[in-house]
Amino acid sequence: MSNEKYQTLFKEVMGNYPTGVTVVTTTDKDGNPAGLTVNSFASVSLEPLLLLWSIDNKATNLNSFINGEKFAVHILASSQQDLCKNFSSKNVDRFSTCEWKLSEQNLPIIDGAFAVLQCKTFKTIEAGDHTILIGEVIDIQIEKREPMLYHRRHFASIPPEFYVTN
């Protein structure tokens, strides 16, 4: 089977795997905010608290993330579909489309997310056409909102019957 055919099948398989949606932010060397939409996000470790995500090596803000010492992962709320699309678009002033502020860690924090995990960069790993960034969580904020789901190029929220109340 050709590599192109495997790539097509891989995209089909991964497109049928439901994921959460995140926007990852940092500041560049001049202190300007940088961010992008990411669904390649996973927990890694509880001791220490580690998570990972990956960025395309062709991304325009790759160096801001690789050379930066910190980043923030925003797990988007189901109401943030426009924000998700804006942060995945090219040639858009992404931060002009949302409310945000700098945290005590000097990271851009976007309002309205389900949760925000601020991290210091633990390790970067080159892997194919992407770079994996592993971060050590140094701050967690969570709000009472429904997280966003992404499946087959559509956005949704978690159905109410899946919620467990304490």
Q: Could you give a short description of this structure?
A:
Residues 14-157 form the Flavin reductase like domain. By secondary structure, this protein is an alpha+beta fold. The protein is 16% helix and 45% strand.
Which key terms come to mind for this protein?
single chain, 166 residues, alpha+beta, Pnp Oxidase, Chain A, seven-stranded antiparallel sheet, three-stranded antiparallel sheet, globular, FMN binding
Task: Describe what this molecule looks like in 3D.
Pfam families: Flavin_Reduct (PF01613). Keywords: Oxidoreductase. InterPro entries: Flavin_Rdtase-like_dom, NADH-dep_flavin_reductase, Split_barrel_FMN-bd. This is Flavin reductase domain-containing protein. GO terms for molecular function: FMN binding; riboflavin reductase (NADPH) activity. The chain is built from 3 helices and 12 strands. The chain is of the alpha+beta class. The chain has one domain: Roll (Pnp Oxidase, Chain A), CATH 2.30.110.10. The strands form 3 sheets. A 7-stranded antiparallel β-sheet has the order 3-2-6-9-10-5-4. Strands 1-11-12 form a 3-stranded antiparallel β-sheet, with no helix packed on it. A two-stranded antiparallel ribbon has the order 7-8. Strand 7 and strand 8 form a beta hairpin. The relative contact order is 0.21. The mean pLDDT is 90.
